[in-house]
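User: Quick sanity check before I run a bigger batch. Here is a single chain. Can you write out its predicted 3D structure?
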Amino acid sequence: MFGLGMPELLVIFLIALIIFGAGKLPQIGSSLGTAIREFKKSIEAPQKEDTTAPPDKIVCSQCRQPLQKDWIACPHCGMKREA
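Assistant: Done. Predicted structure follows.
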């Protein structure tokens, strides 16, 4: 991946073991894994857009323009209003 072989990874692990100690390494690994998982989930999840109108407003299902209660079709796009 980055040209790191087993000897290089072993040296990195030993340096991390010396710096952080044996008790902290599992916590660091767990929090790093959680952070990576959340990052992937936020990238892969589609952004939800709130396209629902408040109950007192009626909008066209096609062009999302506001409609009056007595209109049976949208004057903007011509789409018939859903009942």
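The CA atoms of residues 17 and 25 lie 7 Å apart.

User: Great, the batch can go ahead then.
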